[in-house]
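Methods: holo model generation. Sequences were used as deposited, without trimming of termini or removal of tags, and paired with ligand SMILES retrieved from the corresponding compound records. Each pair was processed once, and we did not select among multiple samples. The sequence and nicotinamide-adenine-dinucleotide SMILES for this entry were:
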Amino acid sequence: MSQSVTVDVTVGGRSYPVVVGHGVVERLGSLLPATARRVAVVSQAGIPLTVDPGVESVVVHIGHGEEYKSLATVEMLCDRFAEMRLTRHDAVVAVGGGMVTDVAGFAASSWHRGVPVLHVATTLLGMVDAAIGGKTGVNLRAGKNLVGAFWQPHAVICDLDALATLPERELRCGMGEMAKYHFLTGDNLLAMEWPERIGRCVQIKADVVAADEREDPTNRRGRAILNYGHTLAHALEIATGHDLAHGEAVAVGLVYAARVADALERIDSARVAAHDEVVRSYGLRAALPAGLDPDVLIELMARDKKVVDAGLTFVLDGPDGVETVPGVSESIARAALAAMPR
Ligand SMILES: NC(=O)c1ccc[n+]([C@@H]2O[C@H](COP(=O)([O-])OP(=O)(O)OC[C@H]3O[C@@H](n4cnc5c(N)ncnc54)[C@H](O)[C@@H]3O)[C@@H](O)[C@H]2O)c1
Ligand SMILES: [Zn+2]
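and the model returned the structure below.
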């Protein structure tokens, strides 16, 4: 087997391995809890990775698309767990991108009040972001990820072989989050080989999560900094009717956050230029898509769930690094939009 990297993630006094490398899915059996006699494998049609847990297993497929990230899917999964008599000593294995690991993780968190879940992440975004950190959940009509639980996985497997079939666009989405990590730490992730690169992203997210597992709203440098670039990104996803995928929107959002920080005199023009360069170096577009109404974007940003009280709340770079900054005026937000590369 070629080289692999294992990152031990410690959260809330417990530690679990994240194994990154080519062919590492073969280690699934050895990573299961010793008590597991049955495994429910949750995946989606078209996901090329097959897994062999080495014990009795049942594969359950969930639908494609965010509308299947739902309580109905959780109910369907739990019905299947009941049929196969999955106990608390057994395990759920989620094989897929963030959509699968979020839903399967949430079903696992509530089945018998919690059974171990192992994530086999098959998208770049899943490997560097969604499978790490223990947030699970589903959408409601009222909004995304409104129902969920913190449920840390028992182990995570990032088999790089899965990335060979991943559509270009999905790869770009992962690169958007990677560019975000670049700014959180200053690490040039592009200078690393793939296993180290993903391992490092996992470590960066794990360190942030370890310090603030439950996202304490008063912690300005806690888990909230993982939303760097995300305030405009969420608005762009909605305003473009999802023409811009999440990671692509995050890339533009990072460049925008730099303009906001500049307008507040938190960073200098060289640091703003560095944002544009870094985003482009990760193969992403920095420019604001044409034809979007600034009023609509401001309105959408004001509705973003991370926003509190007066003014807009952003996660911004500054002399002490990236942190949450509340009370940003609408005129600053507008000026920063006007200063965006086109
Ligand atoms: N829990 C968290 O902390 C967290 C963080 C970020 C995002 N998320 C969630 O993650 C979801 C997005 O995840 P995603 O970007 O991984 O998308 P996704 O899971 O929707 O996967 C995208 C598409 O790629 C397909 N696919 C997956 N792996 C493949 C492979 N190896 N080859 C070919 N096709 C493959 C999937 O079947 C799907 O059609 C969102 O629901 C988001 O809310 C959660
Ligand atoms: Zn994101």
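The radius of gyration is 20 Å.
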